[in-house]
Amino acid sequence: MYKLQNLIGLPVIDARTGRSAGNVLDVWFDDRWSLAGIVLKARRWWLTTFYEAVRWEHVQACGRDVVLISGKKAVCRLKSAEIGRAFHTGTIRMKDLPVVTEEGRQLGRVSDVYFQEKSGTPILGFELTDGFVSDLLEGRKWLKAPGDPVQVTLGDDAIVVPARCEEELEKIVTETGR
Q1: What is the mean pLDDT of residues 49-58?
Q2: Are residues 163 and 101 in contact, defined by beta-carbon separation less than 8 angstroms?
Q3: How far lies 102's CA from each of 17, 20, 41, 106, 162, in Å?
């Protein structure tokens, strides 16, 4: 299991030539919040933002120190509408998105995301925060993503989960990398 924030900043290397393709700037998701790819660079030209990105199916390995891609041709140029939902840079940003229950109770804000290395893998869980002071006093919480994606509303301004998710919150006791 990987923590998304551990990927940010890692070098991206072409597995065939050993040359650098850049560093991971962000990660983006499809409309079902499955991992879709990594963003290497963002550039603005006039009023349009373009990204240099690699679709997740071209990622050969995702390790602690480096991300290997299938080749330099795996790097493509995408418009911001094609990226859509991302952790830091997309039109819809997952970082700090509130997670609320169907009963109107806020469980916290997204601080990090857990996923598996496989292509198209959905999010396994969320690390939630209630703010800096609360994190120091009580620690962050971990919420396993509900197994049935139909039960979760992944909106532009909030993530709505079933009420039972409040009971499933777990405290993160130690920081364990990946």
Answers
A1: 88
A2: yes
A3: 50, 45, 37, 10, 6
CB-CB contact of 15 with 127 (8 Å): no
| CB-based contact 119:62 (threshold 8 Å) | no
Helix H or strand E encompassing 153: strand 153-154
Sorted by sequence, the CB contacts under 8 Å of residue 5 that are 6+ apart come out as 112
For residue 136, give the DSSP letter: H
CB 134 within 8 A of CB 128: no
State the Cα–Cα distance between residues 108 and 142, nearest whole angstrom.
10
**Type and span of the H or E element at 80:** helix 80-83
Query: What is d(CA 43, CA 78) in angstroms, rounded to the nearest whole number?
Result: 10
pLDDT tens digits for range 102-145: 999 999 999 998 887 765 567 888 889 887 776 666 778 888 87
Buried/exposed code over 120-146 (b: 16+ C-beta within 10 A; e: otherwise):
eebbebbbbbbeeeebeeeebbbbebe
